[in-house]
Amino acid sequence: MPKCLVCYKWTLDEQDIKIRPEDLSLDSSRAKGKISDFDRNAIEEGTLIVEKLGGAVDALSYGTAAVKQSLKDTLSRGPEKAYWIADASAETADAVVTANVLAAAIKKLGSYDVILCGEGSSDAFNQQTAQRIAALLGLPCLSFVNKLSVAGDVVTATRKLDDRTEEVSVKGPVVVSVLAEINKPRIPSLKQVLGASKKPNEEIKIADIGLKPEELQPKTARLSVKGFVMQRKNVIYKETNVADNVAKLKASLASEGLC
Amino acid sequence: MNFKLTEEQQLIEQSAREFAKEYLEPIVVSMDETREYPREAVKAMAHHDFLGLHLSAESGGVEAGFVTYIAVVEALSRSCGSVASIMNNHAMASYAIQNWGSEAVKKQYLPSMIKGEVLGAFAIYEQGPAPGIGPKAVVSTKTDAGYVLNGTKAYARNAGEAGVYVVTAVAEADRPKTAVAFVVDAKTAGVKVGERIATMGLRGCPVAHVVFDNVVVPESALLGAGGVQIINRTLALGALAEAAQTVGIGQAGIDHAASYAKQRVQFGMPVFNFPAVQALLSDSNTDCHVARMALYHAAQLVDDGEPFEVESAMVKSFLARFGAKLLVDSCQVEGGMGFVENMPLPRLFRDITGTTLVDAPSDTPERAIAMSIA
User: Span A138-156, mean pLDDT?
Assistant: First the structure.
């Protein structure tokens, strides 16, 4: 019976983030947290595997102090236990730091047969966490997975690539990153929400997972984040001859590489 | 004082929003057009425990409290007022059975009502004044076999789909008239559901008159409190649930109007930037927020076991004045498009009107409020 671990990220709900018109900076003061979209699929997939084959599914997250808000939400969606690492380093963590922390925590927790991640997070969407964790743990990695099955210690996956699909199998343990279409995440029932309070969770202190200070130093620095707003140019062609207006429009579009 | 939902309540509200997007939004337009009862959606609601949300654990419910119930009704109503109406009427029936039903009746109906196998209807109105005790009230006569019911309940929601009715009546032998209430299985001989009545809004929720023609019910079907008490208590809670519908539908209208105003460009800029449009949206959003605060405060009083009837009346009174206006102003923001039938606002407009007109009529709360300061 497989032992699964799902790594997930607690992100801000992008629907709540406003763009300030004056400088296009983001106002997230009223944004609520949510489980990153693809990570919901990873949680669902881990839960489905265990519902089908038995075994156990745990969840693991690394974030700022806000990560604690995710626990009941996560546990209501299937996992039996949640581990969480809350540290200020998550504020500036890039994919390198995130993978360092998660891999070190997984080493501390023990072995898992299937480690699941979302293909990318809702905010940064770096698409690196699964691959980096696999590399750090010396495990194979299956990415872009839209179909997954487990039989004994063999994990079979369908990978959806740009121009083809690829079916692969690997002897576990394995790290898998899943796409949104792999499943439809369940909507927790009220009993599942209320039952989440009774499930265990455990904090892992970042000081206890044996990382060196430099392993918590991001390699990438985010200089700015700005919203994208479509700006209308409000150009009006006023030639009397319609053909001249069309020609001007065509030239304008061509100058911007649009035709 | 804490105005925030608890973490569990927030998660349940989130589940209700996810549920509404998954199960209700895909069917809401066709439901409005065809008036088809949303059978699969109601089953799914049971699967997600919404139908036992307010009931005690002893009855098999989730016992999540009334504030949670209100949050769920608001969340569902943002997507579909009809389904919220069905749930509210079902909840009123199951609430009455849980609180005043005999053990036999509770065992017979509550588990299947929670599972969505049996829909409940709270049928208290007649075509005349004074629900339950008026001149056209259903009459109950005591016999050796139990009670015999005769009369007609008017405008019963969930009628035809319901497997069980909570019915108020007057006891024939008593002078002056004494109100009583019964649990009546829809399959009982003599229960006849009239033709479905076409309503302006909330069209997925069936409404019909129900005739009780020499309907014999056992003694255990009698609810253990006076009919007036059952009506008043259940209607007061129902009024709050209905207010949650109004707030949810109103917020949906405001959100749609705001979104439309940001896309609609006039004179080189989105109409959202115009002060007149901002005034309409800000007034509506303020009214909706104030109503929501008053609503959740009243719901908290229910959970705290404190008197809530006056606060419930205040919410009802406020929304009677401002509820439909939320949609009038939203339509105004959208201009001509707010009048186009296949846009969402006309449906929301018709639905919100239903929430302020039925059950506790808009003109009765003032007396309760006035008496509280007399």
Answer: 96
pTM: 0.90
Which residue is it, tokens 């009220």? A190
Element (H, E) at B330: helix B309-334
Rounded to a whole number, what is the distance in Å from the CA of A194 to chain B's nearest CA? 7
Distance CA B12, CA B54 (A): 13
Evaluate if residue B176 carries a pLDDT over 70: no
Instruction: Report DSSP letters for B266-311, one per residue.
Output: ETTEEGGGSHHHHHHHHHHHHHHHHHHHHHHHHHHHHHTT---HHH
Provide the 10 A C-beta neighbour count for residue A173: 21
> What's the mean pLDDT in B237-242?
92
| Model ipTM value | 0.85
**Contact (CB<8Å) A197/B8:** yes
Residue A103 is part of a domain; what is its CATH number?
3.40.50.620
By residue range, what is the domain housing residue B162? 120-226
| Domain of residue B72, CATH code | 1.10.540.10
Q: Do residue B237 and residue B298 come from a single domain? A: yes
CA distance A72 to chain B (A): 8
Predicted confidence at residue B273, as pLDDT, reads 93
Q: How many domains does chain A have?
A: 2
Q: Is some CB atom of chain A closer than 8 A to the CB atom of B268?
A: yes
Give me B87's structure tokens. Answer: 């749930």
Tokens 């929720």 belong to B205
Question: What Rg do the C-alpha atoms of chain A give, in angstroms?
Answer: 22
In a domain, A120, yes or no: yes
Provide the number of structural domains found in chain B.
3
Whether residues A189 and B15 touch (CB distance < 8 A) is answered with yes
Distance from C-alpha of B244 to C-alpha of B240, rounded to nearest angstrom: 6
Whether B221 and B232 map to the same domain: the answer is no
